[in-house]
Amino acid sequence: MTRVRRGLAAIGHALPWAVAIVYFYAAASYLSFGTHVMIWILFAMSLDLALGYAGILTLGHAGFFGLGAYAAGLFAIHLSPDPILGHLAAIGAAVLFGAVSGAMILHTSGVTLLMLTLAIVSVMSEYANQARALTGGDDGLQGIRLGPIFGIFEFNIFGKTAYVYALIVLFSWFLLAWRIVHSPFGRSLDGIRQNPRRMRAIGTPVWWRLLAIYTISAAMAGSAGALSAHATRFVGLSVLSLLTSGIVTVVLILGGTRRIYGAFLGATIYFVVQDYSAKISPFFWEFVVGFMLIATVLLFEGGLLDLGPAVLRLRDRWRVAREQK
Amino acid sequence: MLSFALTILLDGISYGMILFLISVGLTVTMGLMRIVNLAHGSFAMIGGYVAGYLTQHGGNFYLAVLAAAAVTAMLGGIVEMTIYRPLYRKGELAQVLLTVGIVFVATGAITGVFGAFPYPVVFPAYLTRPIDIGFRDYPAYRLFLIAAGAVIAAALWFVIDNSIYGARLRAAVDNPRMARAVGMNVSLLFTGTFVVGCALAGLGGAIGAGILSLEPAYALKYIVLFLVVVIVGGEGSVEGSFVAAMALGIIDTIGKYFVAEAAPYLLYAAVFGLLLWRPSGLLPPKSAI
User: Fold this and answer.
1) Minimal CA–CA distance to B251: which of B2, B4, B3, B16?
2) Does the distance separating the beta carbons of A289 and B104 come in below 8 Å?
3) What value, to the nearest 5°, has the Cα angle with vertex A257 and ends B83 and A117?
4) What domain range is A217 assigned to?
5) Count of domains in chain A?
6) Which of B97, B117, B221 best probes binding to A when mutated, by most A CB atoms within 10 angstroms?
7) Exposed (0-12), middle (13-18) or buried (19+): which is B112, by Cβ within 10 Å?
8) What is the phi/psi pair of residue B138, to 5°?
9) What is the DSSP-derived secondary structure letter of residue B58?
10) Residues 170..229 of B with a Cβ closer than 8 Å to A: which?
């Protein structure tokens, strides 16, 4: 690697965090939008670990996000207004649920696995809808009151605290995710995705590895859910819907799977486009997002992060074609 | 007591017939091409809206249903040849994403054209009245569903079991590679099957609109049900999906009558348990065993 390339890579690594910090000062009146985007980056990153790296075909990640959100909200209402404790409780709930549900379903694969994840999230959604006394049903969970973080930083209406809180949580999870995917454990997940049978043959405990990454991913998604409950002081029933799972998959794929940074790019673009196209007309964004998805799959499999290489490939093909004439 | 049980049975069967009509195309396409197709519900939805639009503007109900089937068949053919073709060689993830993308596009387009509110299909007056079936009055609409479903299921059975097309289809589902090797044009067979499957979905969406009500969220809301039918029945197994559709229809109806609160759990718990017990469905085609 040349020095220039290394320098470029360093700039690339610093870029998203620099943007986040600049945004904090430059767009003080849109901070809640930034917080929202960061929450979804975290959510998409969690899906990247399970779906992108380990190849666990799931449409049930909304379940962990929703569980985290409801757990954080209920903890604040019934037990303690401390956000840190609530956040940890939400992660704990997601870990527990991820480990138990993962242990039950991870020996299947493909469409069967997809259906099982769908069934789980459907049951959760149905439960949240019917247990009105606990969750508020389709009115959503209201009346969440939070104390200051560490007893110092109050959540205010401008959302500064929430923004910094989300940024720090995202950065911590990012470091962990980066460490994981570049570890031997992360490499073995790559292998399991490509060929589980061969991995089993060379002695990898496939089921345990999948369970481990599924649980970690659940913890991250639950953490994103807790952030969302804390930042908006509200949990709507829609967090448990199939649409939520769909959107997070779209976000991840738009940015590109298996690159960690894909989630950053995908979430930013998705929500900016949604914000603009929803202003034109509320249904329009669904249309646009659908087209983005179809185009992403058909044209550049690696997501938008792959746009540069895709253009280069086209250029090469064009050159070859010209030389053949 | 007996008449009550019969009522539940009839309700369950008519519901199951709709599930079967819409899902049968899905099971064959998923079995034949091993493709994860989450967009199938969109075709049922579009068929329903076509029929809804025509009947609301004074069109004949049966012609409207035929038009719904024709429109979805055409759409299915176009989509298969342009969008699905490149997808067969890609992974399951790409298939899930692209078909979810189609669902989003369809939902957005339907909302844009018809609005976000439920959109009824106008049934002929004699279908909306209850008729006397011996032990009680029963909605004619549901009897119509049972009859229509039974006729179509029988026709499908006949074609698949007795025609050369059916024999080719069964061979290709069991072993697509071998089918290609002996000179069958599996791609063409698949396009044809896909078109028929979409037409049946459109037809099912149109005549089933009295049970699965039409709204833009239709495609996303009911696809889980259709997939459950396919997976529980075993991908590629028409008999399996018939059994699964009937079972789901009856289980769901029983649940709604007796334990209204827990009905959704009952359905999903049954599916969950079954898939853990038999991951490739009730009656998987031979190649899947």
Assistant:
1) B16
2) yes
3) 80
4) 15-241
5) 1
6) B97
7) middle
8) -135, 140
9) T
10) 216, 220, 224, 227-228
Q: Closest Cα partner for B108 from B50, B171, B158, B42? A: B42
pLDDT tens sequence across A164-175: 999 999 999 999
Interface test with chain B among A283, A289, A291, A292, by most B beta carbons within 10 Å: A283
* Structural domains of chain B, with CATH: 7-288 (1.10.3470)
Q: What is the ipTM, given to two decimal places?
A: 0.77
Q: Does the beta-carbon distance from A301 to B94 stay under 8 Å?
A: yes
pLDDT tens-place string over residues B35-69: 778 888 999 999 999 999 999 998 888 999 999 99
Cβ contact, residue pair A119, B100, below 8 Å: no
Closest residue of B to A53, CA-based? B93
Task: Report the distance separating Cα A219 and Cα A222, nearest Å.
Answer: 5
DSSP letters along A247-265, please? HHHHHHHHH-SSSSHHHHH
**CB atoms inside a 10 Å sphere around CB B210:** 19
CB–CB contact B220 A242 (8 Å): yes
Among residues B16, B54, B19, B41, the alpha carbon closest in space to that of B217 is found at B41
- C-alpha B274/C-alpha B280 separation (Å) is 10
Residue B132 φ then ψ, to 5°: -80, 120
